[in-house]
Design goal:
seven-stranded mixed β-sheet, four-stranded antiparallel β-sheet
């Protein structure tokens, strides 16, 4: 069974930092592209960041570029999202996702975690 489990969410003040982690099992992790998405009530799911299997490149939404950093550890089967300079607009449920080898990074993920809540106060 494929499982993706997020952790690290919580309540932080604007300008603060938070580090999310996603533990993956049931996959040949090193062969999968990993991504982070977020969703707020009344809005569609939004792409945040992605990192391919090689870890040599990273991709970010314009809204988080320069503030968020995605990384992966193929030995531990984890993918992290370091979030700095947080804004109230970053408040959302954050999800990690996985897909097999692909040229695309911002769509078509078949495996998802349950999500972790991030709340940024002003």
């Amino acid at each position: 069974q494929v499982q993706l489990v997020e952790s690290g969410g919580g309540l932080v003040q604007a300008g603060g930092s938070l580090r999310l982690s996603c533990a993956v099992s049931g996959l040949a992790f090193s062969r999968y592209t990993m991504g982070w998405f977020r969703r707020t009530p009344g809005k569609e799911r939004e792409f945040v960041a992605a990192i391919p299997w090689s870890g040599t490149n990273t991709y970010y939404a314009d809204s988080v570029k320069g503030r968020f950093t995605i990384s992966r550890d193929n030995g531990k089967n984890t993918v992290d999202l370091q979030m700095n300079s947080l804004k109230p607009e970053d408040t959302a449920v954050y999800y990690c996702a996985a897909k097999y080898l692909s040229l695309t990074v911002a769509a078509d993920y078949p495996y998802w975690g349950q999500g972790t809540q991030v709340t940024v106060s002003s």
